[in-house]
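Input/output pair, single chain:
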Amino acid sequence: MSHRFDSALPSDICVLLRADAEQSWLNREVIPVLRQIETREQLPDDQVDAALAYLEATWDEALVRAHATDAAHTGLRRRGDEHEGLSGSADRYHAAVRVLRSTLAERVTPLMESTFEPDDELGRGATERPSDGCAPQAA
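Output:
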């Protein structure tokens, strides 16, 4: 999936739309699965691995969305503050989504790291995971 920055929309509107889409994704797709895994609520033991795999996939998508949100915010900052009112709102919304993203990263990262255990005497796991796989993109 490729995300292009649409310069036809004002950059403050792009940031607002991207931040809203990212927040909605996190609330709708990531948080419910994360809660189920953390509390094991209505989650049989034999489904934990599947839930972790789903969480990993949704978190990867969340990182793609985070990158798009941050790119839109960078475009807004480059433009300057021509429309102070919406730009300020866009900055605040972006900051709030970054806080949510960071909070979730603190909860998701340990779960993702615990799913990759060493499988040989050298301590290498069967699946190598990039070190930045669960960390949010910096703005």
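DSSP finds three helices and no strands in the chain. The chain has a mean pLDDT of 78.
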